[in-house]
Write a structure and sequence with these properties.
The protein has about 210 residues and is of the alpha+beta class. The protein has seven helices and eight strands, in the order αβαβαβαβββαββαα. The longest helix has 17 residues, at about 180-195.
């Protein structure tokens, strides 16, 4: 009887949902990144392993003005942004910063990016946690110390106060419009650079593989 009781106890412990041998998966995290037109930013980050979603939208201003026609005036405080949700067990925040600073945009361009001008195209990280802020600060300091860019980095760091998804026609615009001249000249090169610089970070099913 004692043997049966011991076996039953061991089985109960093994089946218990809070058994010490079981480890809960780390929760997903998010950060909002701005760096020029959100079409290219979304294309790049959706192609990164460990990123579960990348949504084009607006951050930095009020909900009432989070509409493309108004944001385009450059007077709302919003920046075209991408909300990146990621699995920290599959990709680190530092790796996301690698992609952001070295592939997705030029962090030395003030209130513009490529052919686009205005504060809505600024370089800004809307951090969700103090840990993200600290890592971003350290990353920028390292880039400047190592003189990775000739010009000063102008990326702003600000706490995430709100994110508002952009209109439906902006979502996955690059994927749906690969022949659009803007996409061809400004965004597809970013995806090629991601494959060249960080091939291990590219999802196997990322678009435009050839």
């Amino acid at each position: 009887m004692k043997i049966f009781a011991a076996v039953a106890l061991l089985l109960a412990v093994a089946a218990a949902p809070n058994a010490p041998s079981q480890s809960a998966a780390a929760p997903l995290q998010r950060v909002v990144l701005a760096g020029g037109c959100f079409w290219g930013m979304q294309l790049v980050f959706e192609s990164v392993k460990g990123v579960t979603s990348a949504v084009a939208g607006y951050s930095g201003g009020a909900a009432a003005t989070a509409h493309y026609d108004i944001v385009s005036t450059g007077t709302t405080g919003h920046a075209e942004s991408v909300e990146v949700t990621y699995d920290p067990a599959k990709i680190s925040f530092k790796q996301l910063l690698d992609v952001y600073f070295l592939v997705a945009h030029d962090p030395t361009e003030l209130d513009r990016q490529g052919p686009d001008d205005g504060t809505q195209y600024r370089s800004e990280i809307f951090y969700a946690t103090d840990a993200q802020r600290a890592q971003a600060q350290a990353y920028i300091a390292r880039l400047e110390r190592d003189h990775v860019y000739v010009s000063p980095i102008v990326t702003i760091l600000a706490p995430l106060r709100g994110f508002y998804p952009a209109e439906a026609y902006h979502q996955d615009f690059a994927v749906h419009n690969p022949q659009n001249p803007y996409i061809v000249f400004n965004d597809l090169p970013k995806l090629r650079k991601l494959r060249q610089e960080f091939p291990a970070l590219v999802k196997p099913n990322a678009p435009f593989a050839s």
